[in-house]
Amino acid sequence: MLEQLKQKVSANRMTYLSVAAVVALGNTLTGWENVSWILWIPPVALSLAAITGVCPFKIIFVKLGFASENENDKFCSK
Q: Which pTM was predicted?
């Protein structure tokens, strides 16, 4: 099963998913009433990036002028 997952999922998507899980866990352990709604944006956005392969944070940073290692990325063109 792990071999099938390795073949179908990229390292970038697994990174997005693992960061989203750690941030969501931290938000949950802090307490629902203590965490601002804005702290839920990164885990939601990174979970969507893990599912779709399109990271909204990367798009924003490339549009702000930061370099992208993948110049052929159609979602991050300037």
A: 0.74
